[in-house]
Amino acid sequence: MVNSTAYLSENSHVNDSKCLGEATNGSLGYRGTFLWDPRMQAWLFTATYITILPTILSSGYLADRYGPKYVCLFALLLFVFSTITAPELAKWHYGALMTDRSLIGMAE
């Protein structure tokens, strides 16, 4: 998960009228391990959709050449493989996850 508390949002402000001593001593919950700013997070979602258009344009040709059954089977296997490897790639490197998200977009 992304650590969203590591970066200040543009809409954040300090409320001086509230006493800081009133905070509870309970657990603050899971804070995430990935230090990705909002721009990086947006590119991860965008990478999926950028690759959809070229795939749509070429999928008709591929379906005519190899048959729709094989094109759908390849897309399904690519989607499953990319989805399974995504957590490990996220731990490894941001660029690897970006490539993986692009492959997911191709499989859609």
UniProtKB/TrEMBL annotation:
It is found in: Membrane. One of its GO terms (biological process) is monoatomic anion transport. It holds the Pfam family MFS_1. The keyword S-adenosyl-L-methionine does not apply. It is a multi-pass membrane protein. GO terms for cellular component: membrane. GO terms for molecular function: transmembrane transporter activity. Its main location: membrane. This is Major facilitator superfamily (MFS) profile domain-containing protein. The chain crosses the membrane at residues 42-63, 70-90. Residues 1-108 form the Major facilitator superfamily (MFS) profile domain. Keywords: Membrane, Transmembrane, Transmembrane helix.
